[in-house]
Design a protein that fits this description.
This protein is of the alpha+beta class. Helix content is about 60%, strand content about 10%. Helix 1 runs antiparallel to helix 2 and helix 1 packs across helix 9.
Amino acid sequence: MTEVTLAHDEQDARILEQVVAHHEQMLTTIGLRVRALTDAVNAGNDVSATQKALVEYCRTELLPHAKAEEATLYPQAGIDPHLRALVQAMIAEHSILTELVEQLARDTEPGDVAAAAGGLWTLINSHVSKESEYVLPHIATDPDTSLTELVVGLHELVGGGESAEDNKSAGGCGCGCAHTDEIPELDVRAIPHAIRHATVFGALEAVEPGSSLILVAPHDPLPLLNQIDDRHPNEFSVSYLERGPEAWRLQLVRS
């Protein structure tokens, strides 16, 4: 199956891929940290380290990303009257995200910490989904708009702001803990095909050596696996856990 690109030129297609990949990398990292925090709460363990790791990541990655969107992508998308109300609502969601992060930083009771982290995770997932389905495709398909010019030089939007040392200090897996027994799962069946491959690439960037990701696809993703191998030669080993007919489940382990 040939990958469909929404962008109106090749350069914008590459930038679109980078933005979507950065979204997925943030989602993966935040999801792992939220899971580590809630696991610590459920086990009755101290949550201060995982709480601090989640707050720090949101302050240094998520919130700067949101501000960069408000300064670049949202004004452009808001020109379209059909998207204006959505853009205004998403700006309001940025304010709620900021409040949730600060609440998470202040909370001291484990139950309150878990509730704030859960609310943050729910809102982030919904928010990113709307960006991927409406805002980014609109900008990328507008022949009068250059996505490249909008985001050039903004690592807050395309990634690259977090160093490898930052990831190591977070505990290797990016979740702020020493390890987690659960393997993160990415189900791409509901993701628009135009950004599906970019989403997987972003998720794989967050997988540390020795860790893995379970991919759920609507078909045997052989073209995607070839692209992954081109990007990361001999870096990921693939095992099929399920072969259709409703879903293909694969485990990708980073060496």
